[in-house]
Amino acid sequence: MSSERAAAIRLQTGAACVAWEGSGTARAAAFSGLDSLEVRALTDPADKEAPQQFGANLPTAMANIATLLTAFFEGR
Length: 76
Hints:
By secondary structure, the chain is mostly helical. 59% of the residues lie in helices and 0% in strands.
């Protein structure tokens, strides 16, 4: 995605980040009358530094997801 397209989506929606990968799942769920939820962790800014930052930030990102999901399911 281009920086211009990301900026346009951010302006239109107020989104802090944009991801395309989960759109197929969301569309399939909607088509089937199901709800969907995509949980993601940000590991890098998707720029030229991404390969280095991904590896460095992955353990923290996964720990954050684990904390979030644990809190969610314990509260049910």
